Amino acid sequence: MINRYRKNMEEEHQLLSLVHDIRKDHPTMGVRDIYYKLRPENMGRDAFEALCKRYDLMSKRDRNYRRTTDSTGVVRFNNLMETIELTSTDQLWQTDITYFEVNRKFYYLTFILDAYSRRIVGYHVSKRLYTEDTTLPALWMAILLRGNKKLCKLILHSDGGGQYYDTDFLELTKLFEITNSMCEYAWENGKAERINGIIKNNYLKHWKINTYEELVKEVDRAVYLYNTEKPHIELQRMSPVVFENKIISLSEQTTPKMTKSFNAKARFLGASSPKKSEQTPPLNQNVLPQ
C-alpha cells in the first residue's frame, strides 16, 4: 500500500509539471482537454480534474505551481547550485523530465546534462512517469558512461519532482556518493530546461516520428548529434564530446617527473633530466664530489 501511494505521488507531481508546460503553449485549454492530451495511465479523468482543481490549475496562473507542491512529506534538498563554481566535468549534473507528443499520445524524456561540458551523459525515453522508467535508467546510463566509479565530488541538481526523491533513486545516488540538490523554480535549473527545448525543437520536431519505437531511435540520434556535432559558443565552438576529449588531453600533458641522479656537468646531487636515456652516466664512485 505504501509503495502504491508513493508511486501515485510520483505521477501526481510530474503530471503537475507537465500541465504547467502545456499551459505555456495553451493558456486557455481546459483541464479535460489536457487530460486527453496526457492520458495518464493510472489516473482517471475525474481524478485528474480534481488534482488540477486542488492545485489551482483550472485556469492560467502567473504563480509557479511548485509553491503549492512543497507539502508535508515531500523530501526537499538544498539548492547547492547557487554557490558552486564550475571548474571541471562531473562536478555538477542537471536533470529534468519533459514530454513529447506522438500521434496524440504523450511519452516522457529524461535528460542528465554535465553542466561544465554541456554533454548529455544520461537519458531515457519512457511510456510512464515512474522512477524506474525515467530517472533511474537515465542516471545508470550516466554512471556507466563515467566508468561506473564513485562520484563523491558530484552534485546532481533537479526540480522537486517525486522521481528525484524516490527511495530507489536516493539509494543509487548514495551508493555512488552523489550529493542531491533541488531547485524551487524552473529558471533555477536552466540548463536542464534548455536541453529539453533543444532536443525537442531543434531535432525531434523536424523528423517524422509515428511510434514509440521510432521516438526511442530518434532520441538516440538527436543526443548523438548534439553531443558530437553541435558547436557551443561557451565551449569555443567545440561540441561537448570534443571539448571533454580536449580537457582529457590537456590533463595528460603533465611536466616530466624529476629523477635524482649525479650529473657530471652540474657537479651536484639531485640534478636530473626528463628522460632517463638522456642522463649523463654517473661518475666513478671514487671521484664523486664529497
Features:
disordered C terminus, Nucleotidyltransferase, domain 5, 9 helices, two-stranded antiparallel ribbon, 2 domains, alpha/beta, about 290 residues
In short:
The chain is of the alpha/beta class and 290 residues long. The protein contains 9 helices and 7 strands, in the order ααααβββαβαβαααββ.
Radius of gyration: 26 Å
Distance between the termini: 84 Å
What does the main sheet amount to? 5 strands, mixed
CATH class identity of the largest domain:
Alpha Beta
Mean pLDDT: 80
- Given as residue ranges, the uncertain stretches (5+ residues, pLDDT < 50) are 60-72, 255-290
Strand content: 5-15%
Helix content percent band: 25-40%
